[in-house]
Amino acid sequence: xxxxxxxxxxxxxxxxxxxGGAWCRSVIDGLHRIGFDGPVWHVHPVAxxxxxxxxxxxxxxxxxxxxxxxTATIECLRDLSAKGAGGAVCFASGFAETRDGGxxxxxxxxxxxxxxVVGPNCYGFVNxxxxxxxxxxxxxxxPVESGVAILTQSSNIALNLSMxxxxxPIAFLGTAGNQAQTGLSQIAHSLIQxxxxxxxxxxxxxxxxxPALQVLMQAAHRLGKPVIALKSGRSEAAQTAALSxxxxxxxxxxxATALFDRLGILRVRSLDALIEALKHAxxxxxxxxxxxxxxxxxxxxxxxxxxxxxxRGVVFAPLTDAQDMxxxxxxxxxxxxxxxxxxxxxxxxxxxxxxxxxxxxASGPAALTAIVVDFPRRDRCxxxxxxxxxxxxxxxxxxxxxxxxxxxxxxESLPEDICGRLMRAGVLPLHGLDAALDALAVIYGTRxxxxxxxxxxxxxxxxxxxxxxxxxxxxxxxxxGLNVPRHxxxxxxxxxxxVAESLLPVxxxxxxxxxxxxxxxxxxxxxxxxxxxxxxxxxxxxSYYIExxxxxGGVELLLGIIADxxxxxxxxxxxxxxxxxxxQDTCHLLVPATALEIDLALDTLRIAPLLDGYRGTPRCQRxxxxxxVLKVQDYVVxxxxxxxxxxxxxxxxxxxxxxxxxxLIREEP
Length: 669
Hints:
This protein is an alpha/beta fold. The chain has four domains: 3-205, Rossmann fold; 290-444, Succinyl-CoA synthetase domains (Rossmann fold, 3-Layer(aba) Sandwich); 486-548, ATP-grasp fold, A domain (Dna Ligase, domain 1), CATH 3.30.1490; 555-667, D-amino Acid Aminotransferase, Chain A, domain 1, CATH 3.30.470. It contains 23 helices and 28 strands. The strands form five sheets. The chain has a seven-stranded mixed beta sheet, with helices on both faces. α10 packs across α16 (433-444) and α11 (299-312) crosses α16. Residues 235-251 have low confidence and may be disordered.
């Protein structure tokens, strides 16, 4: 990790801009416009007032913007490294992202040596704290004393985010481009150490090196700085050949979610929600899950909040008796008291009374109180009558140590100047009901407890893999301590009948097939030798697997672990059996998961009531499921990255045991 180099690059005292054209002129103009007070040296062979070469510079620059073509970029990096420059932003494209760029990418790294490099194929950064902009385009940042850092792998997305008008103070905006030398996590780790950076927002297409991301999150956890991420793109690395149900259900998106949960990264699904969540993170820091309160002067808005919250798993705290009495005293008997609350307009324009209602709603068990209000258009309306809401919210905020938010149903209904005043007063402006609730669901919704210090096994499987069929897979799992039915192998229908006699009733399965049910390779409940021989003849297989039926079978589960090279090993639990894909009832954890995490994950499944005994059915032995998962995990971890996939489907859970009814393992020989 080039830590010192990044500090010097991001907070330079002198800057060199290398190259001509509009892009480089924009960088020079941008440095002056944001207020950079150090020398800015232009390097170009013929431009007026420019230094003719890097060698002619009066001293080694701390930061450089290289705006020349890809071949010339490599020569510039070599010259800058030799001169002792602090670091460089490489603007040119045409490196690892192109078919012919691999060799040039290697040459770029060799030329840079120990000098920090951001990019190539990126815009660079804007440091609004120290008034530095190595950025070749427009941006919307202004100098701030503190704020959030936003890092993206897309320059255009970074530019768009800089134009937000929602009161979010952006202290640092950076792009990582191809991450040839310095990854997004390394940049973030350097920035998050700065006490002026309050939180971190990430737009991630690929997580990069897992150890670097884990180091970043360990630091963020230690410093108490929230990290909010928008993950886009899907890696095909996790979409392995569909030999199993797990492979089709555990794509890289599930892997990313499991990884983020483990590390404590709060994942949002839109740029709007990213901005709203970052405002909360900037004002209030890390927050524990909990219920919220909502109030508005409209029953329609109260209903929208209730419906939108319910759809996202947001919980509204019930009113306490004390809150109910206090609200009745202020609002009178005509107002129905509930959460979400429609407080009507009887006290509108009376800021002290409105503040009292807001404070009462915040005084109960709610972790945050959202006041729903949309401000009229100033260009067409007189808006004085809405000033009472802003005043009341600020007064209420002074009476509580809990977050108070003004939340608009439409994103354009909260002007930027009001947002600024609210943020300075510690009141959270939230724009748009959908984006706001998306953000609140991530911040206050139920989630597993983060553990960024827990080791993450990293898959290292090669292309050469072998498939352990059901018989071999079950033998491995039995040695691991899992419960496997009594069974036998046979090479002919007649032999199948002979070995089945002592096991009747039995299941008969053709060996060497995945998805045996779909191709007629499974027959269940065969209760005679003749039935076994007849079924085997119909299958026309070269070998057979015969096992006892599970007489007290209860719930069928899927238990799968798949190697996701981008995110680690992903554990999938869900409804099992032949209808697994149809039900799509699954949850995902990162390996290794704890017994408590597995237990809580089972509760999230729609079939969870079946495990606990549904309408008089026997209660299943959940502890045996957890034990089975832990044993399978142990096997995967012990193989040190060799396992590509394990699936047990179904794992039959009974009142006394969890039995492996079918299994498959793919791993290195």
